[in-house]
Amino acid sequence: MEGVEDSATVRPSADHQMIRKQATPLLAQLMHKPGDAQTKAKLGKLNDQIVEYNRENEFSAEEETMFTIDVDTFDAIFTTAGSYFARLQRVMQIRRR
């Protein structure tokens, strides 16, 4: 890929990391209760903060969502994993008997 070796690696700033750190307990809540509208709304507000920060720091229009949290993907993963986890718990209970 031409030019890749010359491109700078963009890393999240300390401000990005501080906002995303606030998302960690919310993602844990979403993991235990996939689809929870309140939790998803709180994560959405954090994404709004990230986008606002990006705009204020002159990220291009294509980059304004850089470092946001892909809430829908996490929610889908947690939903799928939840059903497997429930099955695994049932199997483990049967084996303990």
Topology:
Blueprint: H1 14-32, H2 37-56, H3 71-96
Helix pairs in contact: 1-2, 1-3
Walkthrough of the structure:
With 97 residues, this protein is mainly α. It is built from three helices and no strands. The model has no long low-confidence stretch (mean pLDDT 89).
Sum this structure up briefly:
This protein has helices at residues 14-32, 37-56, 71-96. With 97 residues, it is mostly helical.
Order of helices and strands: HHH
The shape, in one word, is elongated
Please describe the biggest sheet, giving its number of strands, its sense, and whether it closes into a barrel. none
Please identify the structural class as seen in this structure.
mainly alpha
- Cα gyration radius (Å): 18 Å
The quaternary structure here is single chain
Q: Total number of β-strand segments?
A: 0
Low-confidence stretches: none
- Helicity range of the residues? 55-70%
Kindly report how far apart the N and C termini lie. Answer: 58 Å
Helix count from the secondary structure assignment: 3
* Mean residue pLDDT: 89
Strand content of the residues, in percent? under 5%
Name a few traits of the molecule.
97 residues, elongated, single chain
